[in-house]
Amino acid sequence: MTREEVYETLNGVFQDVFDDESITVNDETTSDDIDGWDSLEHINLIAAVEQEFGVKFNMGQVVSMKNVGEMVDIILSQID
């Protein structure tokens, strides 16, 4: 799976979790960029991403992710 394919899939996950069809994420996207992305929705987002990609984030990864680009890096490292 390419980075672009991961982003295509992630856009759908973000749109579903935040119920906003206009969301498009990129490497620099953070919780500050998306309305409603608080700590509770972060948990929902992580669970949805794990289910969609068949990956599992450890707690260290979850708390250290600074932006969506880092999330994509972790996803790619687990599915390659």
Total strands: 0
Provide the structure class.
Answer: mainly alpha
Distance between the termini: 7 Å
Strand residue content? under 5%
What is the N-to-C succession of helices and strands? Answer: HHHH
Number of helices: 4
Shape summary: globular
Protein name: Acyl carrier protein
Domain Carrier: 1-79
Organism: Candidatus Eisenbergiella merdipullorum
Short synopsis of the structure:
This protein has 80 residues and is an all-alpha fold.
Overview of this structure, please?
The structure is a single chain. With 80 residues, the protein is mainly α. The protein contains 4 helices and no strands. The protein has helices at 3-18, 39-53, 59-64, 68-79. The protein is globular. This is Acyl carrier protein. Residues 1-79 form the Carrier domain. InterPro entries: ACP-like_sf (IPR036736), PP-bd_ACP (IPR009081).
List its traits.
PP-bd_ACP; 80 residues; 0% strand; Acyl carrier protein; mainly alpha; ACP-like_sf
Task: Note the topology.
Blueprint: H1 3-18, H2 39-53, H3 59-64, H4 68-79
